[in-house]
Amino acid sequence: MNVVPDTSVVIDGRVSAMIEDGQFEGATISVPEAVVAELEAQANDGIETGWDGLEELKRLAELADEATIDLVYVGERPDAIERGHASEGEIDALIRDLAEDLEATFVTSDIVQAEVAKAKGLDVRHVSPETRRVGTLAVEEFFDDETMSVHLKTDAVPRAKRGELGSMHYEEIADEPLDEERMDEYAREVVDGAKEAPDGFIELSEPGMKIVQFRDYRIAIGRPPFSDGIEITAVRPIAQTDLEDYENARELKDRLLERQRGVLISGAPGAGKSTFAQAVARFISDHDYAVKTMEKPRDLQVGPDITQYTELSGQMAKTADALLMVRPDYTIYDEVRKTDDFEVFADMRLAGVGMIGVVHATRPIDALQRLVGRVELGMIPQVVDTVVYIEAGSVHTVYDVRTEVKVPAGLTEEDLARPVIQVTNFETNEPEYEIYTFNRQVVTVPLKDDDGGPGTDTGVDRIAKQEIEREIRSIARGYVDVQLKSQNKAVVYVEEDDISSVIGKGGGRITDVENRLGIDIDVRTHDENPHRGAGGGSASANGGGGGQEAAGQMVSPEITSRHIVIPVDGNHGETVEIQADGDYLFTATVSRGGEIQVSRGSAIADELEAAIDRKAPISVVPS
Hints:
Residues 259-384 form the AAA+ ATPase domain. By secondary structure, the protein is an alpha/beta fold. It has 18 helices and 32 strands. A hairpin with a 2-residue loop joins strand 23 and strand 24. The chain has 5 domains: 2-126, Rossmann fold (3-Layer(aba) Sandwich); 138-235, 2-Layer Sandwich (Beta-Lactamase), CATH 3.30.450.90; 243-446, Rossmann fold, CATH 3.40.50.300; 459-528, 2-Layer Sandwich (GMP Synthetase, Chain A, domain 3); 553-622.
């Protein structure tokens, strides 16, 4: 009897099993080289099935050594083109042709392969894939009621995170390290269990990394060369909460049910963000809203009424396109991290879908700031109107986000009114931050002192001082010191020689500056500064005149039709001085894009352009 097995039945290990139970005893097992090539390619890519198939070939070799069977390898090894079209059936066709040429019994556990072979008149033995009831995985034995995650690695003692939310401890849970053989056994059991259990699946399969969802467990398996040893990390939710368990529950419920909203659930890793998101998902689903999720991997614990989606063809944008056809009322997006994620979140929200995103952040405001630069500033309140910050499993802060056209806090002139994003504490109804465009930059200004201590400048104070310094230094040649007396009054100390230049004829120049900034400015000399000599109030502190020796970054400004653009390497968002041949020119703030733009036609632009024309070295010095 001559038997030709295909790749599927070799991977299943069914050929050796049928030999051992007497069905193929004494037969000639003709293994196609095409099968060997497929298994070798899979093993090289770190795919478990390749290794399983190679193990089966070793068992067949042992049975041949025992004279139980004759083992031969037949056919030609497929070329690269044929291997590249394996998914289209090229390899399967080669194996069937060999079985036909040898007039052999063709054995497969692939139903499509079996049906095609029967249609071609081959003697076919179809063996249904072996299934077994999956019980408890060995990895599960490391868990107890307080264990959130188990961490296993070759040659390391098993560890676990145990405790309650907000008070987790990373501790050893065994006495001896695990060897490679035991770790390989655990890893294979997890993968096999995911394939065979109805409530298990492989979420991600890449060379060196597999992510498995098995019942309530999300299990990541890393193998060399991706990791430096076999590593298994199993995570399980330890808390199942309802929205009523959290503070502000009634207000949050009303807010979520009032209409579809854009919500960011933020917090540090392990703070309980996903647990809260699950509670929100169940709550809105129970109140007549169609709810879906977008996750990679899918590990939120939600009811069967909530469909969990992952990446479609490797892209969440395609998942979003599909979801818009499904028309959910709310979508839970877990986790929003990369720019693409924020763009998908914004597109879904602006399409009218209620969106709830889970975001890593160490402060409540940080979650909102992650949208800056990724979403147009004026659209942020349309994309996100609620920020919930979770800390130690509890709702720590809830922010309401809205836009208002107003004069930013700390400024006074009506012509400085602009669209301002107000971030208000939901519980106290007090504004805590304002986000707006100031001098072509997006600024986030805290409306309260960070520590409440005396003498602490608020965010708007710091911005006001920077802008006053920038304006005055564009006029003065020497050192400039700014002291804020109140939100709408400042004193500027300059060199005596600069007094007339700063004030201007009839006070016209300083009046223009006051009108632009909305702040009353009193100009005095450094001799009148009561803080002179304490904290850098002397003229030598910043070295206003020539010969400054502070280390700077040499730059090559570019002159365009409308601007002089100074590229800066680093110092993004910081205040710096621009110098020509060591002489101070002006102070500016480096943009997020790493440049400073000076509008041509202004006094400082003329000075800068003259310095460039005379080939003076231009440098950027931290202020």
